[in-house]
Design brief:
Helix content: over 70%
Number of helices: 4
Structural class: mainly alpha
Order of helices and strands: HHHH
Largest sheet: none
Distance between the termini: 26 Å
Mean pLDDT: 82
Low-confidence stretches: none
Radius of gyration: 18 Å
Strand content: under 5%
Number of domains: 1
Length: 87
Amino acid sequence: MFEAIPLVGLFAPGMLIVIMGGFFAKIGILEIGDVIFFASIGAIIGDLIGYLLGRKYGYSFLSKYGKYFFFKKEYFEKTKKLMNHHT
């Protein structure tokens, strides 16, 4: 869900929200169909935003800040070569 989006997941943990939605559906405050629908939409939107951010800023972000995450440029090149070989 939205925890897949950088920084957003810190403020809105998706699993907790889904569990709370299930609880509220159980006690009759929400409809279970609505909880399932919005959880699905949230998961799709969160993944899509994460993908688009990675596609637009991925390489430049990793080139600039990858060293802080123990990510070396040769790892990226090796992964890129592997992905190009299999797609």
